[in-house]
Amino acid sequence: MPLPNFGQILRALDRFTRHEQVVLSALAVVIGGIGGGSAIAFREGLGAVQLLFYGFSSERVVTFIAYVAWWHILAVTTLGGLAVGLFVEFLMPGKRPLGVADVMEASALKGGRMSLTDGIRAALVSAVSLGAGASTGREGPVVHLGASVSAWVAKRLRLGRALSQTLLGCGVAAAVAASFNAPIAGAFFALEVVVGHYSMTAFTAIVISSVTGTIVSRIWFGDFPAFIVPEHQIASFLEFPAFAILGLVSAATAIIFMYSIEISAKVASKAPGPAWLRPAAAGLAVGLIALVFPQVLGVGYEATDTALRGQYALWMLFG
């Protein structure tokens, strides 16, 4: 049987690449790699900022902060807040931080379009804030950065609205999966929160990106779970109603917490003085709290692990 010539191979590749699902799957692999790389870059950048501020680079802040002087903690949280305030005031669009809500808005109202420059700026602000000790969470900035990079790729390829939204979901899935080492969580977060539907086209691409992002993360950091959940044996079916009640209580707690954040933001917006000074005041407050409860500093993974093991009193969790 004669081998195909070069022209036949090119024609076969041309027919192959005209299939939208094939092209989207290939793009999903690329976006997954880029999204995973973005999550790695953010974590390493956060570690560098933390090393600069505190002299150590670790998510186990509670363990290492005990060796840092009290005045050092107050100075870092206050000056870090000041740096964030100045950055947001003079470099961020709308003079406000960016996060997951902006990704949802881009998907729903802007056809998946986002600014890569704004994404990088938002990541820098978040890295400084978290590195200084603000417990603002690592996942929001990683989601925004992954979405910004995927939106930039979609723009360069001049993709339509539907494909751009799908790639946005791919970037988010890869970023979440790489951050938590959890491909299933990354995929469903992107489908539920960003894309908003479960079409087979979007589902396939997002799962591919999520798995790719996880692989990239595991190559760099190793295969370690974000949280170590203690094993629990169900002794009786009577426990299931208790789980349902626990779900209701947890949901109510989350809702109350979200409302408390909104109320705090409104109160802070009415504080006297320029807006760029408010993060410095907040940083000082965080530093003072951290002198008694160091668990409030940083990404909070160590404190979450301790809570999952049931080693905190209930009053401390609500305090």
Poorly predicted sequence stretches spanning 5 or more consecutive residues: none
- Give a quick account of the main beta sheet: strands, pairing sense, barrel closure: none
Q: How large is the count of helical segments?
A: 14
General shape: globular
Radius of gyration: 22 Å
Classify the secondary structure makeup into a structural class: mainly alpha
The CATH topology of the largest domain is given as Clc chloride channel
Average predicted confidence as pLDDT: 83
Percent in strands: under 5%
What is the CATH first-level class name of the largest domain? Mainly Alpha
Distance between the ends: 77 Å
Instruction: Specify the CATH architecture of the largest domain.
Output: Orthogonal Bundle
The fourth-level CATH homologous superfamily of the largest domain is: Clc chloride channel
| Number of structurally distinct domains | 2
Number of strands: 0
**Helix and strand succession?**
HHHHHHHHHHHHHH
Q: Assign a percent range to the helix content.
A: over 70%
